[in-house]
Design brief:
Number of helices: 14
Helix content: over 70%
Order of helices and strands: HHHHHHHHHHHHHH
Amino acid sequence: MNPTPFYTRLAHISISILAIGFIAVLGKSILAPLIIALLFALLLIPFAAFLERKLRFPRAMAAFVVLLVLIGGISGLMVLLGSQLSEFAQEWPAFQTQLMLSFDSLQDWISHSFNINNRQQAEYINQTAETALGHGTELIGTTLISLSSSLLFMVFIFLYTFFLLLHRSLLMRFVVALFSENHTPVVHEAVARIQYIIRKYIVGLLLQMVIVATLTWVTFMVLGIKYAFLLGLLTGILNVIPYVGIFTSLLLSATVTFATGDTTHVLFVVIAIVVIHLIDGNYIMPKIVGSKVKLNTLTAVLGLVVGEMLWGVTGMFLAIPVIAIAKVIFDRVEGLKPWGMVLGEDEPATQNAIPANEELPPLEE
């Protein structure tokens, strides 16, 4: 039997990639919450299985209890963040006054350094403000729609998580039935591997968030930065979004410090966040998160770019785990093994194996 010509296989691959991208764009409202729910379900399956086996909970009750724990954890984080923001809001008038004073100082510096007087700066600011006000109504309407969409998005995530936990055995039988019987062991091993990787990845991501938030908070406290805990918490949360999050937190921290401190404090804040990011990128991330997801840097960056193009910030957050799942599947399908190889790290295949003291847990169904 003659092998399929390369140009035919290339055409099939190109059409498949375009079709997947087209479906991803059209199905964002369904696929995005479903994939996030899948990640949550994979993380919570051991807890649900414990309730079912040890405490004899019915599956529906176990799934419901686990879902309540998930909602409670997310709500607790939101309450903590909200309490810090409310304290910040109470001091908003003083913050605004200080910001204006700092802005006046900045105007004077620009006037002396670049010979642009305050009147010219004011004209430019007024023009910018008029343009912004012209789109004010549209911006408010878009914000309200975005807020309602986000709440609906979260509701669907929780519903999907519950039903994935409830019907996980049925879904597992469906996946096994898609392949011939002699491939059943490989399917079970691939699913167990995906569970292992995603579970370790999410736990590592949460641990990374806590470490970065704590480092930022302690550093800002030592430097005497106002709102140190709030800025540390925001830095830890935003750091979950690779690359973009750290720059956003840098901008927020520098702006708040600029309004509540002096130029020296702003410089210290910038240096501190850059150093924390270097520590995170070169030690925390590789040791805690990167060791579980064996992807090369080029693949990760391309995944983030494509994820942002397709689904925005949500796509950037989901890019790494989705690519990690794809790699597990590619490594076990004969025709897709080269794609799994190019997604992985540039190291011998034996180093990609799970350490001897870290075996795969039994498949949870």
